[in-house]
Amino acid sequence: MVTDHNIPLIIARIQFALTVGVHIIFPAFSIGLSVFLTFLEGMWLRTTDNRYLNLFKYWLKVFSIVFGMGVVSGIVMAYEFGTNWARFSAKAGPITGVLLSYEVMTAFFMEAGFLGVMLFGLNRVGRKMHFFATCAVTTGTLISMTWILASNSWMQTPQGYIIDPETGHFLPKDWLAIIFNPSFPYRIIHMGLAAMLSVAFTVAAAGAWHLLKAKKNKTQADSTVRLMFSLSLWMIVATAPLQILAGDMHGLNTLKYQPAKIAAIEGDWISERRAPELLFGIPNMKTEHTDYAISVPLLGSLILTHDINGKVPGLKDYPADQRAPSPIVFFSFRIMVALGGIMLLCGLWSLWLRHRGRFFTHPLFLRVMLIMAPAGFVALLCGWVTTEVGRQPWTVYGLLRTEDSASPLALSSLSFSMLFFVVIYVFVFGSGLLMLVRLLRTAPEATDNTHDDTMILGSHHHTVSHNKEVP
After folding, report:
1. pLDDT at 438
2. Which residue among 343, 384, 385, 442 sits deepest, i.e. has the most Cβ atoms within 10 Å of its Cβ?
3. Cα–Cα distance between 73 and 29 in angstroms, integer?
C-alpha cells in the first residue's frame, strides 16, 4: 500500500531500477560482444580470411560505444549506493563493498589497460600482441561479471558471514563461502549465456537487414554479410538450448533456497503436490487468489521439482509482509520464458533452412530475425526483474529488509533527482542508441579476399597483401 511514509522509498526503488535496468544492458552487450570479437580475430589469425578482419573492425566500433555507455551508467549506480541506500551500504558494505572493489582492482584495470591497444593498436603492435589485448579485454569483462554476480548472488543466498551484535553489520567469516554462495554458479552461467545470446540476435538482425536490403536491390549480398549472419545463427543454435537448461537448473536452486520467490513467480497460493502449471492468470495480492487462471494439470510439479508428485510452495505459507509482488514476477518470468522458446525455434528454423538451401534468402525468416533484434535484451531485463523483485521485501534475503536499507531522504530531493535522471538518461543513452543504429545500418567493409592489415579506424598506414587464395 502506498502511503506518505513510504513514497520516498518507492521513488528510491524506481530510480535504482531505472539506473540498473539501463546499465545492465551495456555490460551484457560488452560481455557477449567481446567474446565474439575474440572469436573473429582468432579466426582471422588462423585462416587469414579477410572477412573475419572486416567483421572484427565493424563490431569493434560498436563495442567502443557500448563499453563507454556501460561505464557512464555504472558510475551513476555506484553513487546511488551512497546517496539513496546508505543504510544498506553501512550494514552490507563490509561484504558487498569489498567484492565490488575486487571488480575494480582486477577487471576494470585490465580492461582499461588493454582497451586502447584493442581499439587503436591493430597497426601499431604485432598481430599476436593485439590478439592478446583483445583476449585481455574479454577476460576483464568476464571477471567483472564474476565479481558483480558474486556480490548480488550473496544478497540472494547469503552465507559465510556473521552479524555484529552491536552494529548489525554483516562481517565476513569465510570469503570462499561468500563468493561461491549457493546461487552463484547458476546465476553466472545463466547471465553469461544471456549476454552471448543477446549479442547473437543483435548480430543476426544486422545481417538480416543487409540481406534484405540486397534482396530488395536485386543484388548479391557480400560474402562478409553472409558470414556474419551465418556465425550469429550458429551461436544461437549453440547457446539457446544451453540457456534453457541453465534456467532449469537455476529454477531448482531457487526452489531450494528461495521458495517464496518461486511461489510468487508461479502465482501459487497454496502449497501442494502434483501441482498444475499456470500458463496465464492475474495474481491478486488482496484476495490471495490468481484470477482467470489457465493451467495444465501436474505440469507445475514436473517442471519445478522434476517429480510429478513434487511439492510446490504457496504464498500463503509465508506472512503477508514477506511476499514478493506476484503480479510483476509472474508476467516478467513468462515473457522471459516465451522469448527463450522463440529463440530456440529461430535456431531450429535456421538449421532447416540451411538444409533446404534457403538460409540467406528466405524473406520471412530474415524479417523475423530483424524483428528479434532486441529479444535477448528484453528477456535479460525480464529475468533481472524476476530475480530482483522476487527477492522483495529483502535486500539481503531473509536478513535485511528493503525499507531498512534506504537512506532517510526527503521526498523533494528524490523527486528532483528522479526527474533529472529520466531527462539525462533519455538524452544521453537515446543518443548512444541512435549512433548504434546508424552504424549498424552501414554494411561491413566488403572484401576481395586479399589480406589487408589496415588500421582499425580506417587509416591506410600500410598494407600487406598475399597472393594465397582463400578457400
Report:
1. 87
2. 343
3. 13
